[in-house]
Amino acid sequence: MEENRTGNTLKKWRENAELSQGDLAKKMGYTSPQIVSNWERGICTVPPKKAALFCKATGAKQKDVITLIMKDTTKRMEQRLAGLFAATAKKKTSRPQVKSTVEL
């Protein structure tokens, strides 16, 4: 199983701020701690528009949070594109060979 570095880092920042998942969720405007759990389990990551609230609530440095989100987003996009390319390659059909009727 692949290590969830992004989630582990988010959890470390939250725990260093002595916040429960519910506390952090409330400080960021969410009604349920499930979203924080999802971030920490690697299901998704902090939305960029919420990054400033995450920093304010946890005391994490803005540059560090932005870098983490960018790396995670890039990784997810690479995985998604690789899957799309693989699916496209499977669907590729071979074209029949057509002989040219033009003599050179």
Annotate the secondary structure layout.
Layout: H1 5-16, H2 21-27, H3 34-41, H4 51-58, H5 62-91
Q: Could you name the ranges where pLDDT drops below 50 across 5 or more consecutive residues?
A: none
Order of helices and strands: HHHHH
Helix content percent band:
55-70%
**What count of structural domains?**
1
Describe the oligomeric state of these chains in a short phrase: single chain
The backbone outline, from C-alpha atoms, is elongated
CATH homolog superfamily: lambda repressor-like DNA-binding domains
**CATH topology description:** 434 Repressor (Amino-terminal Domain)
Alpha-beta classification: mainly alpha
Give the terminus-to-terminus CA distance: 58 Å
CATH class: Mainly Alpha
Strand content: under 5%
Number of strands: 0
Mean pLDDT, to the nearest integer, reads 89
Question: Under the CATH scheme, which architecture would be assigned?
Answer: Orthogonal Bundle
Largest β-sheet summary: none
Number of DSSP helical runs: 5
Gyration radius (Cα, Å) is 22 Å
